Recover the amino acids of this structure.
């Protein structure tokens, strides 16, 4: 009887630890090129690997969504708080984003930076998940958060032929600053030349 009780107790502890390790992971696929199957296939393999580790993975293919450009109307702050006044699919992106534990921004490098598609979503989402008010944080002025918690973020890039290490470092630094602005921590910058398992393991250990 003692062994049976011990078995169920150990099993319960292991199941609890597994549930605590599970994350809601969102992948924002900023690949604008439908013919770039290599990039999309990499993200599919990454999603499958994370799912095998018991994570709940959602991939948003941004090129298939209606995401309009920000026109600087500030409606998401003063007219329709937390929602873009354009009423496009950004609301769906923000809903999934804010309910995630980790969000991976993913894009080929185009002219030295992630795609305009990913950048458009990144900037519009940042406005929607923050308040228009300011506060001082570590001697810097930042917007006040709209929500009590924010997902950690990371970046996955596909090098272009002209992309060098300096380009990658600049992108990394910009996204690290972006993470500070949206009240979260920046996990990593990874490349699609890295094995899928290595990227998945880094997410697993965040």
């Amino acid at each position: 009887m003692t062994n049976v009780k011990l078995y169920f107790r150990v099993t319960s502890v292991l199941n609890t630890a597994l549930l605590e390790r599970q994350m809601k992971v969102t992948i924002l696929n900023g690949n604008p090129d439908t013919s770039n199957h290599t990039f999309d296939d990499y993200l599919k393999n990454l999603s499958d690997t994370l799912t095998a580790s018991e994570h709940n993975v959602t991939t948003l293919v941004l090129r298939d969504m209606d995401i309009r450009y920000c026109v600087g109307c500030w409606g998401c702050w003063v007219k329709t708080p937390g929602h873009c006044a354009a009423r496009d699919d950004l609301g769906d992106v923000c809903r999934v984003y804010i309910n995630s534990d980790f969000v991976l921004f993913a894009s080929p490098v185009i002219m030295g930076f992630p795609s305009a598609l990913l950048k458009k979503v990144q900037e519009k989402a940042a406005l929607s998940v923050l308040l228009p008010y300011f506060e001082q944080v570590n001697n810097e002025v930042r917007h006040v958060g709209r929500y009590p918690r924010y997902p950690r973020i990371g970046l996955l890039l596909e090098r272009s032929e002209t992309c060098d290490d300096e380009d990658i470092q600049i992108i990394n630094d910009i996204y690290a600053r972006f993470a500070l602005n949206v009240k979260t921590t920046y996990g990593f910058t990874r490349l699609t030349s890295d094995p899928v398992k290595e990227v998945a393991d880094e997410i697993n250990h965040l």
